[in-house]
Every structure is written in C-alpha cells, then in structure tokens.
Amino acid sequence: MRRAAPRRSALRSPQSGAVLRKVLLALAGLLLIFETVPRWFSIPGLTRAELSPPYLDSTADSAFAPHPYLLYTPKPGYRRSADPGSPGARTFEHGPLGFRAPEVTRAKPQGARRIACVGGSSTYGTGPSTDAATWPARLGAILAEGPAGAVEVLNAGVPAWTSFECLTGLAFRVLPMQPDVVLFYLSTNDAESALWPDPVADNAHYRRVWPTFRPSPLESTLERSVVYLTWRRYFTDHLQQRADLGFRSKRLPEGRDGERLARYEAPEVEGPLPDQGFDNFRRNLLSMIAMTRAHGAQPVLMTQAIWSEDPGSNRLLDGELRLRAHGRMTDVVRTVAAETGAPLIEAAAHMEAAARAETDATGSQQIFSANVHLTDEGAQRFADFLALELGRLGLL
C-alpha cells in the first residue's frame, strides 16, 4: 500500500513565498524612501534639527554648565537674544565671571560699596524681560542715582538653587567678590525639597548629580539613520531625559509619587511635614550668616514673596502644600534673624500685599509672573522697596 505524499506547508508554497518577498520588498522600499526623502526635502517633524536638536550635542545653547561643587552654574559669556516681536520675549546675558548681567568687575573700585544678591530663579530673574529689568539690576540703577555714592549690585542668583548650593556658592563665587552687604532671598526651593519623600540632612533625597550622556559606540552609527532618529525622537523619552534642566538636578522618586512630581503635582503627605528639610534650611542659613560675617560683610535676610492664583490646588509650585511649606520656611528666616541679630527685610508681606491690593482694585495682578517670579513691574516695585529698606537699616 503506497503512503500518501505529505502535503506541502502553506508557508512553503510558491505562492506564499512570493507574497513574503513582495512584503519584504515593499518594506525595504518604504524604509529607503523614509531614509532618503527627508534628506532632500524639508518635511515638518522630520528635519534634522527636530530629530536631533543641536543642544543635545553642543553646550553652546545651554545657559548653564555643570560644576564639580555647585551642581551647575551660569555659563560665563552666555547670551540669548529673544525675538522682540514674540510674546513674553526675554533676553539673558552672563558676564565673563558667570553672573547675570550687568556684571561687576572682580576688583572692587576704590571707595565703592558692593551688595551681593544671593538666591534662586527669583533673584536671577526668570520672570523679567531683560537683564536690566531684574530686581538686582534695578536696585543697582536706583542706588547709582541716589546720595549713597558708588554702590555696585551683583546678581548671584541661580535658578533652582536651594540653600545648599547658595551656601557653597557664597564661599566660592560671592565672597571672593568682596561684598560689603549680602542679601539672602531664598526659601521656596528649600520648601520644595522639604516636601520630597524621605528627606535627609545632605539633601540627597532631592538632589542628584548632573547626569552625563555616554552614548554607546553603536549610537553614532545609528544616528545616521532617519528611521532611528524618528523612533528615538517620537517613541522614547530620549530628548526629555537630556533636555530637561529641572530634572537634571532633581531626583524623581520611584512609583506614583515620582509620576505626580513629574507632572508638577504635590506629593501626598499624611500628617505634619517632616522636620528634616526645615532643619536643613535653618542650619544652612546660620552657616551663611556666620561665613558672611567672618569675611567682613553684613548679612541681610529677606522673606521671600509667593503668589498663587489657586492656593487650594495640589500644584507643586504654588498649591496648598507648597504654600504651607513656604510659610514654615518664612518662619525659619524670621527666627534665624532674631537669634543672630541679622537685619531682616519683610519683602514677602510688602510684595504680597501689593499684589493683593492690585487684584482687589483691577481683578488681576501684574507683579508676579508665576509663584515667586516677578514681572518687570514687580521687579521695579521690589527694587524700590529694597532701596528704602537698605537706607532705613543704614547699610548704604
């Protein structure tokens, strides 16, 4: 009895093989078109600048650079000019020493008094439109026209810096500039770090080292492919990881809290806020005051103003929890001033009252651009107030 010949698998049939070859050829053709056409024609979303932005491989477009002791500092000589016609256009410039313009010289002129302003982005001037519109620059302009003689004002603010970075920056960047008076305007960045889960004494629960991108040898070869660049740009978080300055410096906790913080929502805190972050801030303030005095300068503490359009929200930047932590940090500033005898300027009460009065009168305020950041108008108002307070304290 003859055994029946085995049936050929459908996958091995000539027809199936032909179909498979056609599919592979079609895919190869599509890949070839995808690889070649964007190289010759500008297609939105597939240009080289969009798939691999220049700032990823060049530090020329970055206003800040990593520092071995300070996480990062303003890059000396950096300048960014914004289109004057664009809404909210802002310009930034750093002098040769790495301070926000207008920058003073390293050597203090004979007979001049020098005031250094230490703080985060609200001192650096994230909100104002130009270098000249920041409150340290406006304070310098006011004092230059007054009867106090030659007074120079140095803007030593750096965005996102807490009292940890300000303490180190005071030692390595500010005191070598021989200031006579040092104004400390900070607390809100410390308030944020105090809200981070599991706070510790060295702030390592919040801060992380500046990450360094180390591509594999294969990466440089793959980057020649438009298909690979498209996949990396639109289907991975590669650009976010390399471009987000804020999270270059912040440690995102794992799990749900990390997701909430990434969306700028406040973490959930049960019961009273942990003391550690507030103890850290107090310790750092005491150290900065002692160090400033040891170098023959006068420290001046200022309470930091904050404004929220929705104080009952859970927003990390200006929601209910942030305002609670910010208020407690303000109490620390007042307590340290009383204990050490350092002059205290109640900037928070003055600026917040001004914004509240403007809101009551017009329905909105034009002093704060976002939480602690000031508009041009707000920076001018702040500088006018500080000039009067410094005169009242006899520091001019």
Summarize this structure as a short list of keywords or feature phrases.
single chain, 396 residues, alpha/beta, Rossmann fold, five-stranded parallel β-sheet, elongated
In short:
With 396 residues, the protein is of the alpha/beta class. It has 16 helices and 11 strands.
Q: Do you know the CATH architecture of the domain at 54-79 and 90-206 and 268-392?
A: 3-Layer(aba) Sandwich
Mean pLDDT: 87
Instruction: Give the end-to-end Cα distance, rounded to a whole number of Å.
Output: 117 Å
- Helicity, in percent? 40-55%
**pLDDT < 50 runs, ≥5 residues:** none
The overall strand count is: 11
Number of helices: 16
Could you please describe the fold and organization of this structure?
With 396 residues, the protein is α/β, with parallel strands linked by helices. The protein has a domain of 268 residues: SGNH hydrolase (Rossmann fold, 3-Layer(aba) Sandwich), CATH 3.40.50. It has 16 helices and 11 strands. The strands form 4 sheets. The protein has a 5-stranded parallel beta sheet, sandwiched between helices. Strands 1-2 form a two-stranded antiparallel ribbon. Strand 10 and strand 11 form a beta hairpin. Helix 5 crosses helix 16 and helix 7 crosses helix 14. The longest helix is centred in the N-terminal third of the chain and has 27 residues. The radius of gyration is 28 Å and the shape is elongated. The termini are far apart. The mean pLDDT is 87.
